[in-house]
Amino acid sequence: MTQRSGNSLAISIILKQRSQFHLGSFLIVEGNDDYLFFKDFVNNEHCKINIAFGKGHVIEAIKVLDTEFFSGALGVVDADLDHILGYLASSGNIVVTDTVDMEALLIRSPALDRVLLEYGSEDKIREFGNDVRHVLVDAATWIGCMRLYSRNQNLDLDFKRIKYSKFIDPKVLSIKISKFIQQVLNHSQRNDLNVDSIVEELIAIRQSCVNHWHLCYGKDMIEILSLGLKSTLGTKRAQDVRPEMIKKYLRMSFHQNDFHRSTLSDDIKKWESLNPDYQVLKSYMKNPTPDSG
């Protein structure tokens, strides 16, 4: 697929795609992972998925389409830190995840339990003794606090090159906060900042946040889970539990029932009810309850 701006994507939908798909709806998502997530839940006869290649491009495309009074287009974006910052969706034609990102939605769901059952070691998980999901959220929340601190202070810190193995304790999967902060500062060439002062700032941010799912990024939790499945939680080869593979396993383990119980599904259905001429999701019927007799 060719990468394009939100404006050019909107023009494509208005001038070309609508003529080819004149009665259907358009779902605009951020990236290929989102496409792979939605493709099993979207009614392909009535809805066409477009990849915008970025959150900003989704928002831009919907803004152009709204300006042109175009009907039948819905954008879905990751919240990132918007829930904490109090930012609202800029359009009624945009749905925002209630977790930080789509990966966090998968980890919060029963998909994580299925992945642990399939790719973890039952004995090692029992010996671990802690709830894996809780441990992942706890560690990732500290990273999210640092991301929020960077944003609030306009520091533009570099999180892309961090090595999780350098600051995650492999035995308990907890974060060594000072080592994590120092690594981020090193990569960002901001050694003028004081680690101890930042720790105090992160503690204050964490204590002020009621819902940690609004702070913890799924991509951070997946990186930590990858480390765990190599040793603490399992015995898999490193290549079998790479973050990209775990992301794939989570998607494959996320069932129709899981999706239709999610807030994301509810919000898309609300949009459908307000736009009754357009359908995005497949019709869904709950699995019948087995006959008790």
Question: Layout of helices and strands, plus pairs?
Answer:
Layout: H1 6-20, E1 25-29, H2 32-38, E2 47-51, H3 55-67, E3 73-77, H4 82-85, E4 94-96, H5 102-108, H6 111-119, H7 122-128, H8 132-152, H9 177-188, H10 195-208, H11 218-230, H12 243-252, H13 256-260, H14 263-274
Parallel strand pairs: 1-2, 1-3, 3-4
Short description:
Helices cover 51% and strands 6% of the residues. By secondary structure, the chain is an alpha/beta fold. It has a four-stranded parallel β-sheet with strand order 2-1-3-4, sandwiched between helices.
- Summarize the biggest pleated sheet: 4 strands, parallel
Helix content: 40-55%
Specify the structural class: alpha/beta
Distinct helical segment count: 14
Going across the biggest sheet, name each strand in turn. 2-1-3-4
Overall geometry comes to: globular
> Roughly what is the average pLDDT, rounded to an integer?
94
Would you give an account of this structure?
With 293 residues, the chain is α/β, with parallel strands linked by helices. It has helices at 6-20, 32-38, 55-67, 82-85, 102-108, 111-119, 122-128, 132-152, 177-188, 195-208, 218-230, 243-252, 256-260, 263-274, and strands at residues 25-29, 47-51, 73-77, 94-96. It has a four-stranded parallel β-sheet, sandwiched between helices. Helix 8 crosses helix 11 and helix 9 (177-188) packs across helix 10. It is globular and about 55 Å long. The termini are far apart.
